[in-house]
Design brief:
Largest sheet: 6 strands, antiparallel
Structural class: alpha+beta
Oligomer: single chain
Radius of gyration: 19 Å
Number of helices: 9
Number of strands: 11
Shape: globular
Length: 286
């Protein structure tokens, strides 16, 4: 229920201060020789790796051209990248980009610069207390229904999918599969992709229904990775050992969710949620 004890305008103005711009560039790293010539593996590993290490951005696999193209620059995988500032109409916050495996074995990928969500993720799992929690809950209480709000929530303890799926009853969200990582964001997985093969591997069950457990989808992807993929994982700061450990534990440490203020407030006030941070407030476009 929206609290009307104070004017909405002042609270909404405070929320709007949470918005931030994004600058995009490109980074590049050479891969090891054993990975260099396997373009099919590059398609499977690189796009998913980019998504796994950047929960503050969304790789829209349904808007990504699934077939790589060969150019003078090498093998290119087109991408649609979006800021985590969602709801319907969020594509206006995205852009077209690409991953490239050059003829010399260099991996080029978008550099996704610091945003408010990036800052919140840098504190995720650190064990420090959030002094802004009450402010953020207050903002959620008084935001108008005409906006969509994105929040980062950290659980009091890591939860199995079966123990937390009632916290956020929606496939629209980013599930954080690790706590703090040295100089990196938490590992993540989302349920993006409507087509069974949207992510380059089968995310559906035997009857063609999409698997709704992010832990299971993540496990399926990790199970496909082998020693020959190390060179494609390294540019994203990933190792097989870390990914396999996270897949085996199958625990969810937190969520990035987007929705109406009243719905997101219920998530924020769940007894299993340790703390929240608002990372985006945008007008809703129906």
């Amino acid at each position: 229920m929206v609290n009307s004890r104070r004017p909405v305008r002042s609270i909404f103005a405070l929320a709007c201060l949470l918005l931030t711009g994004v600058v995009v560039a490109s980074s590049a790293r050479n891969v090891t020789s054993e990975s260099r010539r396997n373009g099919g593996r590059f398609d499977l590993v690189a796009a998913n790796s980019l998504a796994v290490v950047n929960p503050d951005y969304e790789i829209d696999f349904d808007l990504t051209v699934s077939v790589a193209r060969i150019t003078n620059n090498g093998r290119e995988v087109p991408l649609t990248v979006e800021v985590q500032a969602g709801g319907q109409g969020a594509t206006q916050y995205g852009w077209q980009d690409k991953l490239t495996l050059s003829q010399s074995g260099e991996v080029r990928y978008p550099t996704l610069f610091h945003s408010l969500a990036s800052g919140a993720l840098s504190r995720f799992g650190s064990g420090t207390e959030y002094h802004r929690d009450k402010v953020h809950v207050r903002v959620l209480e008084e935001l108008p229904e005409s906006v969509r709000v994105t929040v980062l929530g950290e659980f009091k303890r890591p939860l199995a999918w079966e123990d937390m799926k009632d916290i956020w009853n929606s496939e629209v969200g980013v599930f954080l599969l690790s706590g703090a990582r040295p100089s990196a964001k938490p590992l993540s997985w989302d349920l993006n992709g409507l087509d069974c093969m949207a992510r380059g591997f089968n995310i559906c069950g035997p009857e063609g229904a999409k698997i709704t457990s992010p832990s299971e989808q993540f496990r399926r992807w990790v199970a496909l990775l082998g020693e020959e993929d190390k060179g494609y994982l390294e540019p994203f700061g990933l190792t097989l050992e870390e990914l396999r450990a996270a897949a085996a534990k199958a625990r969810i440490h937190g969520l990035i969710v987007t929705g109406e203020p009243e719905i997101v407030l219920r998530f924020a006030e769940d007894y299993r949620v340790k703390r929240i941070d608002i990372v985006s407030v945008i007008p809703y476009e129906s």
